[in-house]
Design goal:
The chain is an alpha/beta fold. The protein has 13 helices and eight strands. The strands form two sheets. The protein has a six-stranded mixed β-sheet with strand order 1-4-5-6-7-8, with helices on both faces. A two-stranded parallel sheet has the order 2-3.
Length: 284
């Protein structure tokens, strides 16, 4: 029995050795579903019916996780695109030889990275490993890519801890701007809600967390990197928001009603900035 099926067979617990693909295939409630619900119940119901798609940003993040957290997996699964099959063509990726070669590699279970993506991932991983605080966090949280399964009020939930140690939960994030990571990126992508979801699960699995840490690294040169400790108040806010979202989900399931973002008449107005501009012009 594989690690992937063991996770389902054994139910709640911390499961090691489960592939990312196996994790994503688990029929359980992850933090991504909370973010759908945070948009609207209508969006949540719609997304449940859609096939999972990995964007370029997600692909980059997945490769970075492997390069930093599981370098043996990165070396074993990720390969450079086969540009050599059409060396004299100005656009080798447009050739049949290139497409056929990529298809053959993919069918063999490998993940093909474009040259520029491969170089970016390697540079980002090097930046993380060279950062003193990031290296310290990696040492304090030696467990890698752990799958968590737990039960929340009869609902099977899942999470995947990038790094886990004694009272420490770590997560690697890519970002466009390191200076905007806190508070804007954390707020925009609901990282505090994701952290709270994981902390709840780990508490149920007798692994209490005292510190949630993020390693954030820019996805463009010079690949600046920083380590951020999630403030307790922000984590508490994540717990509160998650409780609200789960209650809303239960209500939708009970009533069969899945409203959108604006179910009632809402006022429309111009922005405060526009009004301020008009006031300035009037004074002038």
């Amino acid at each position: 029995m594989t690690a992937d099926t063991l996770a389902i067979a054994h139910g709640p617990g911390l499961h090691r050795g489960i592939s990312r693909t196996g994790y994503l295939s688990l029929d359980a409630f992850g933090s991504g579903r909370l973010e759908w619900m945070n948009v609207s119940p209508l969006y949540f119901k719609y997304m449940l019916s859609q096939p999972a798609e990995e964007t370029a940003a997600l692909s980059l993040g997945t490769a970075l996780h492997a390069a930093v957290l599981e370098p043996d997996v990165f070396a074993r699964q990720y390969v450079l695109e086969p540009l050599h099959v059409a060396p004299d063509n100005a656009k080798p990726r447009a050739t049949k030889a290139y497409r056929d070669a990529v298809a053959d590699i993919t069918q063999g279970g490998f993940i093909v990275l474009r040259q520029e993506t491969f170089d970016t991932v390697k540079a980002m991983a090097a930046a993380v490993l060279a950062h003193p605080a990031a290296a310290g966090l990696l040492a304090k949280a030696p467990e890698r890519e752990l799958t968590m399964i737990w039960n929340r009020d009869g609902r099977i939930c899942r999470g995947r801890a990038d790094m886990l140690g004694d009272g420490v939960l770590g997560d690697i994030k890519t970002t466009r701007s390191l200076k905007d990571f806190s508070p804007w990126t954390v707020t925009k992508y609901g990282y505090h809600r994701q952290a709270a979801h994981y902390v709840d699960g780990l508490a149920q699995l007798d692994h209490p967390i005292e510190h949630v840490m993020f390693i954030a690294v820019e996805a463009s040169r010079p690949y600046d990197c920083g380590v951020f400790a999630l403030e307790p108040a922000s984590l508490s806010f994540g717990h509160i928001e998650n409780d609200r979202l789960f209650l809303k989900l239960e209500e939708c399931e009970r009533t069969g009603e899945w409203p959108g973002q604006f179910p009632i008449v809402t006022s429309a107005s111009v922005s405060d900035a526009a009004i301020a501009t008009m006031d300035d012009e009037a004074v002038a």
